[in-house]
């Protein structure tokens, strides 16, 4: 068996070399533990503690682990990037509905919004990598259903969808335009407290 310190170093090296975030199962498989993610979880916990106060941190987002710059140092490393096209109001509404109600079909999105959703609106979210096709609903017509992605969680700094804010939190943070509150309340399922995605 690999000594604990060697295992921690091996997990650290694997994550540094990875081109994308990895699950514990992927790390275990890469290091020769087969289908035993529990073998690497103690090493991940130790690395998370070790990097907690450093310039980079080990974080878990949507079950995937990766290193990212500490939030208070992000301004030092900003590079010029091509800005993502600003989301239209329709795309913002659709993204909120998918996040709070996933998995959800286009018809369900339209029922919540009260208007038709153009194909281009969902295409923008799919191209951004924030929304994915999650399969088909087992009902007549078998409509496509949509869900968010790990990229969505990472972009918004969420470990899971359970961290999505509720309507009261959005209002308290001053992020709601009074004109938008009815739509947002509908998208969040009508209410106060922390939103929780439907299943």
TrEMBL record:
Lineage, highest ranks first: Bacteria, Pseudomonadati, Pseudomonadota, Alphaproteobacteria, Sphingomonadales
Database matches in SUPFAM superfamilies: Winged helix' DNA-binding domain (SSF46785)
NCBIfam families assigned: SMC-Scp complex subunit ScpB (TIGR00281)
Name the record gives this protein: SMC-Scp complex subunit ScpB
Highest taxon of source: Bacteria
Keywords associated with the record: Cell cycle, Cell division, Chromosome partition, Cytoplasm
Protein's organism: Novosphingobium soli
Oxidoreductase listed as a keyword: no
A Pfam family recorded for this sequence: SMC_ScpB
Cell division among keywords: yes
């Amino acid at each position: 068996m690999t000594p604990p310190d060697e295992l921690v170093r091996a997990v650290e090296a694997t994550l540094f070399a990875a081109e994308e975030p990895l699950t514990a199962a992927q790390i275990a498989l890469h290091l020769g533990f087969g289908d035993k993610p529990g073998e690497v979880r103690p090493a991940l916990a130790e690395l998370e503690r070790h990097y907690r106060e450093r310039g980079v941190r080990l974080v878990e987002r949507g079950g995937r682990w990766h290193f990212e710059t500490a939030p208070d140092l992000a301004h030092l490393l900003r590079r010029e990037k091509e800005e993502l096209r600003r989301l239209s109001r329709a795309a913002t509404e659709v993204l909120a509905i998918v996040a709070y109600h996933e998995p959800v079909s286009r018809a369900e999105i339209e029922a919540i919004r009260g208007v038709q959703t153009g194909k281009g609106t969902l295409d923008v979210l799919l191209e951004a990598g924030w929304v994915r096709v999650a399969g088909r609903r087992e009902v007549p017509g078998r409509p496509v259903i949509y869900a968010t992605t790990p990229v969505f969680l990472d972009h918004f700094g969420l470990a899971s969808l359970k961290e999505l804010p509720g309507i009261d939190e959005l209002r308290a943070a001053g992020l709601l335009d009074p004109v938008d509150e009815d739509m947002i309340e509908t998208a969040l399922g009508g209410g106060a407290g922390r939103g929780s995605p439907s299943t």
